[in-house]
Amino acid sequence: MNDTHKPTSDPHNTGKSGGEDVLKTTFVGRLRNYFLAGVLVTAPISITIYLTWTFLQFIDNKIVHLIPEHYNPSTSLPFSMPGLGLIIALAFFIIVGWSTRNFLGRLLVRAAEYVVERVPVINTIYGAVKQIFETVMTSQSDAFKDVVMFEYPRKGTWVMGFVTGGTKGEVQSKTKAETMNIFVPTTPNPTSGFLLFVPKKDLIYMDMSVEEGIKMIVSGGILTPEEQVKKK
C-alpha cells in the first residue's frame, strides 16, 4: 500500500500574495517623502514669517506707545498697523543722519560726545562701540568681505572664518609675519566666536560669498555652497 503525502493546508495562509505588502510599503514610503517635502517647503517660509512678525511686534511695542495717543494711528484707526514702529524708527534714524550734516546737528553731536567721553567706564564702552560700528558700517572697510580657511586648532584640522581687517598696532609690530584679523564664529550661533591673528601666508581665501559662508556655519555644514569654477 503506497503512502501518498497530501499537501496540508496552512491555517495561517490567507491567500494574500506578497505583492500587497510591497504596495503597502511603497505607499507608506511615498507618504513619508511627501511629508518631508512639505516640511522642507513650509518650514523655512513659516519660520521666516514668524520671525519677521515677532520682530515687527517687538519694535512696535517699544516705539508706538511713545507716540501721543491723539497722534497714534493704532488708537485712531479701527485696525492695527503692523510695522509702524519700524517705519518710525527708520524715519528717526534718517532725520538724525540728516541733522548731523548741518552745523547745528554737528554741534549737538560734539557736545554729547564731549560729555560722554568724560564719564568713567561709559567713555570706554562708547569708544569701543563707536569704533566697531564705524568699522562695520563704512563702505571703505574690508570687514567681513572675505571668507578664509586655515589650520586650527592643530595641524591637519581646518576651520573657516571671516577677515575683519589687517592686523595693526602693537599686535602686528610684535609679530614677524604679516597677520590678519580673523573672526571664527561658533555653530549654530554665529554672533559669538573667537578673534584670531593669523599669518596671511597661512590663509586660504575662498570663492564663496560671506552669506554662503555664514549659511554653512549656521547649518553645521549641511548647506554647502557649490564650488565656483573660475573662468580663465
Please tell me about this protein's structure.
This protein has a domain at 147-218. A hairpin with a 7-residue loop joins strand 3 and strand 4. The protein starts with 17 loop residues before the first helix and ends in a 14-residue tail after the last helix. The protein has 232 residues and is of the alpha+beta class. The protein has helices at 18-63, 73-76, 84-99, 103-116, 122-137, 169-173, 210-218, and strands at 147-151, 158-166, 179-185, 193-199, 204-205. Strands 4-3-2-1-5 form a 5-stranded antiparallel beta sheet, covered by helices on one side.
Give me some keywords for this one.
232 residues; 7 helices; flat; alpha+beta
